Amino acid sequence: MTDPDLIYLDHNATTPLAPEAWEAMRPFLTENWANPSSGYRFARRAREAVQLARSQVAALIGADADEIVFTSGGTESSHAAIHSAIALHPERRHLVTCATEHDATLRPYDELAAHGYDVSILPVDAEGRIDMAAYEAVLRPGQTALVSLMWANNETGLIHPIDQAAAMAHERGILFHTDAVQAAGKVAIDFSQSRVHYASLSGHKLHGPKGVGVLYVKNTARFRPSQLGGGQEAGRRSGTLNVPGIVALGAAAAAAQAHLASHPGAVGELRDIFEAGLRQRLTGVHLHSSQAPRLPNTSNFQLEGVDAQGAIILLDTRHICVSSGSACATGSIKPSHVLTAMGLASRPARETLRVSFSRTTTAAEVDAALDALASAVAKLRMTRA
Ligand SMILES: Cc1ncc(COP(=O)(O)O)c(C=O)c1O
């Protein structure tokens, strides 16, 4: 059982499984374990459930069901998109991305750079935004194989103008991929109206299970698969389907869509209450990316004079989970590449926390977290003085 006192405010790391998702997947872990690709009647229910999940995910992002390819998660989806673009255009040796992307994009781009690709990494301003004129200037028709630009940033929640960026790439005959892992289920997405060719989604970021995701492939875009074998997913991603995971992801997508429609501003209101409370109770608070379009569930802020790792430990003793703007790499604390790209020096980055909410967060949890944070900050500032 989950710790009954747990206050989980790290929903950009992962989310709890929605009850609807668990109910939907359970029969496919127990009595209905058929391979959906088999021809007999016993497999029909699994096949139909996968098709339902495909339309549920498609409905969440304004896609057609046949534009949905199930994968093992966001990382695989982004790899598949990148691989497809370079395989379709082997003569094009230029790639575009942004400095604040997730490592699931940056690391494969690094690998391609090591193999001779010319990679343009767009810088960002202090809010995390790219300059659209600079973006336009790096596009090279006939040479750029792919642009990969995330819909929303996992640390700050910053939202890039994806439809505009995709249209600019499309006009120049350039494939466009977006990592929409953090956006799907949190903000409205309508790929039917956009020029995005490929997009990555991940089940566990929207109250689905871990280890399942989606690659959206626009039906007018060409695609070259990287995972070959039995030809599942219309030849776009071979491998026996993860039926329970897919079915749960479908149910989670439907639940997210229903919540977005019925309570459009609810998560954002909680985040705003949290940020107002922060400013009221504490001095030296600097919100990041708050002057730019951002996800309604994410708050990223520096607390002057407060070591974020220390705050995380103190909050943890009160069963509160949040994360920081730095990561422990080989024993030393390394500021996040996202904050560094936004121009933050090492100290403010080490004083940065990320708090991320979801539809399961309550106002009482927000209050309790503010109390705990205020006392942790007082303690940490006192020991420092
Ligand atoms: C923006 C972003 N892209 C990609 C991923 C990776 O997704 P997955 O864990 O499904 O491989 C994550 C997960 O942290 C993410 O936040």
Structure characterization notes:
There is one protein chain. The chain is α/β, with parallel strands linked by helices. The chain folds into 2 domains: 242 residues, Aspartate Aminotransferase, domain 2 (3-Layer(aba) Sandwich); 121 residues, Alpha-Beta Complex (Aspartate Aminotransferase, domain 1), CATH 3.90.1150. 39% of the residues lie in helices and 16% in strands. The strands form 4 sheets. It has a 7-stranded mixed beta sheet, with helices on both faces. Strands 9-10-15-12 form a 4-stranded antiparallel beta sheet. Strands 1-11 form a two-stranded parallel ribbon. Helix 4 links the parallel strand 3 and strand 4. The radius of gyration is 21 Å and the shape is globular. The model has no long low-confidence stretch (mean pLDDT 97). The site of pyridoxal-5'-phosphate has 12 residues, from helix 3.
Labels describing this entry:
single chain, 385 residues, alpha/beta, Aspartate Aminotransferase, domain 2, Aspartate Aminotransferase, domain 1, 2 domains, seven-stranded mixed beta sheet, 16% strand, binds pyridoxal-5'-phosphate
Structural class call reads alpha/beta
Small-molecule binders here are: pyridoxal-5'-phosphate
CATH class category of the largest domain: Alpha Beta
What is the terminal separation in angstroms? Answer: 41 Å
Q: Write down the domain tally.
A: 2
Total strands: the figure is 15
Widest sheet: strand ordering: 2-8-7-6-5-3-4
Largest sheet: 7 strands, mixed
CATH fold annotation of the largest domain:
Aspartate Aminotransferase, domain 2
What's the CATH superfamily of the largest domain, by name?
A: Type I PLP-dependent aspartate aminotransferase-like (Major domain)
Radius of gyration: 21 Å
Count of runs of 4 or more consecutive helical residues: 12
Unreliable residue runs: none
Order of helices and strands: EHHEHEHEHEHEEEHHEEHEEEEHHEH
- Overall geometry comes to globular
Helix percent band: 25-40%
